[in-house]
Amino acid sequence: MLQRKILFSLFLIMMVLSASIVSAQEWERPEKAVTSHFMRIGGSNVDYTVTCDMMPIHSYEGRHVADMFYMAYIKDDVSDKTKRPLLFSFNGGPGTASIWLHMGVLGPRKVHYDEDGFALKPPFELEDNEYSILDVADVVFIDPIGTGYSRMMPGEEEHMFHGTMEDIESVGEFIRMFTSRNNRWLSPKFLIGESYGTTRASGLAGHLADAHQMHINGVILVSSMSLNVDIGSDLNYALIFPHYTATAWYHNQLPSDLQNRPLRDVLDEVEEFVLGEYLDALVKGGYVPQNEYNEVVRKLARYSGLSEQYIINTNLRIDRGRFRKELMRDERRTVGRLDSRYTGIDRDAAGENYSYDQSLSDWEGTFSATFHDYIRNELNYKTDNKYAIWGRVRPWNRDQRVNVGEMLRHAMCENRFLEVLVLEGYYDAACDYFTAMYAFSHIDMTGELKDRIKFEFYESGHMMYAHRESLIKMKDDMAEFIKNACKK
Asked: Residues 6 or more apart from 227 whose CB is under 8 A from it?
């Protein structure tokens, strides 16, 4: 019996040592890769250097707890860095890497799509991005902990930074470290985040000022979330409705008199209806007068492409998932969540279940293949570690006490030069444009900050930049915003 216990103990020790060896192999830090490049952007020659490396993240006690992966694009031959803007970029999820903004719009190399932003047949290709922001600003792409190549050190709690404030603090620490190590404290600094990245960017605007006394010049929010603004259930149904109209317009599901008008013209009419008659009816609930109810039903059907009977069956409250299934049910097609221009084919055309998002399916394969080839063969970053486009970040601590909208408002009050640019796609149901407009109108109830908050809209979806016409406009909008925010 004693011998068996000793053998079992030795077995456990060997297992622990083996696990430690595997962990050490998994977390062996790849060598930093620095490469030089040249291309033409916006009609100008741009020489630039790309650095792919890890930034150590430390605990409050000074312990090295994580490595955060980044890719920095820095323009060469800049004599005065105080005149050169620095843009920190990340995506959302929470739990996705910075690949989307990187390979879709900001970087000098991008995924090749057709003109309308739809994926081509594999194998996929990269192309030079003549609309990269690199002619205007240096860009640092950050992968939050658990995404990309960013990981906790062996033995550390995997989810230490997986929460609203924890995430903001870790990315803020990266920005502080990068700024110091690269002598960029006097450079104009900007944040750009997409989707949940807009939550992170808004919180960072306040956190960087409070924790590191770092004031930034501008925040760019791509497909903005509601930023902790309290939106009641009836408001949710109202604010998403203009997106339904845009989607129906794109797929030719509206009456001909609406279909033949420009989309923005139709949306002006619908937005007025939503904040007036429709919201009134939702608030009145079962006490709405019958004549008002009938008129709202008629207009909801007219503006959505759905039948009046279906509107009645929903009690005037059209669920986002149900809409994607219902709009083109007679054609056995669903419409995309992240970009409703895309259509998918479910297993059947009955019921309410929505099985997948064709827009996301198109994006994942193209971005993954081109990124992996690019970083290995063009940027010479060699590692067998998995690049986690979607990281393991659950459970996520959604601390309701953290109000990123208030953090952004406070940062704008403290720093009277801080500007915000919000970019929204009409065909995005995940972060719809009208909810974003409502959120910002309620972040600042005084209206004192509205002249420093600018919206731009695109006839595209969540990743509006996949659509070439929107990509061109987006570059112009961002470049103008950065240049104006840097003026003395």
From this structure: 198, 199, 202, 404, 405, 408, 439, 440, 443
